[in-house]
Amino acid sequence: MWKPNTTVAAVIERDGRFLIVEERIQGELKLNQPAGHVDANESIIAACRRETLEETAYQFEPTALVGIYQWTVPGTDLTYLRYAFTGELGEHDAARQLGIADEGIEAAVWLSRDELIARAAQHRSPLVLACIDDYLAGRRFPIDLIRDFDGNSL
């Protein structure tokens, strides 16, 4: 039975630069927002907090939904549903090891949109730039659009 993968991403901007994760996938360096899968018994918003912390060592509090994106990897039936959030960047724990739960995370870097375009061949998916462009266009939806009926903490 076909099921899409539910993922989250954090679109975090500071001084015209975006927090981006460099990760090695099948030997190739890729760029992505702090992002990942929603775990069992985890709310979508809690997953965004967790993934951002795991991949960047920054605390993050989602405050608005930038968009919901559907993408199928070309030539496969692998489909992702991505919930992209923006919000408040919190403290950074410089001593925290990145990617403890995700093998391949190499660094968290701050890149401008122009720098991201120059490195487009390294984007993990077309969702990277789509989320940033929607953020820059001012797309923000109330976070209370997401409602959890499983009793999970949002």
TrEMBL record:
Gene3D superfamilies the record matches: Nucleoside Triphosphate Pyrophosphohydrolase
Superkingdom of source: Bacteria
Nudix hydrolase domain: residues covered: 1-133
Subunit-level organization: Monomer.
Keyword annotations: Hydrolase, Magnesium
Organism: Chitinibacter fontanus
Entry's family note: Belongs to the Nudix hydrolase family. NudJ subfamily.
EC number: 3.6.1.-
InterPro entries recorded: NUDIX_hydrolase-like_dom_sf, NUDIX_hydrolase_dom, NudJ
PROSITE patterns: NUDIX
A Pfam family that the UniProt record links to this protein: NUDIX
Listed name of the protein: Phosphatase NudJ
Lineage: Bacteria, Pseudomonadati, Pseudomonadota, Betaproteobacteria, Neisseriales
Main EC class the enzyme belongs to: hydrolase
Cofactor(s) listed in the protein's UniProt record: Mg(2+)
Magnesium among keywords: yes
GO molecular function annotation: nucleoside diphosphate phosphatase activity; ribonucleoside triphosphate phosphatase activity; thiamine diphosphate phosphatase activity
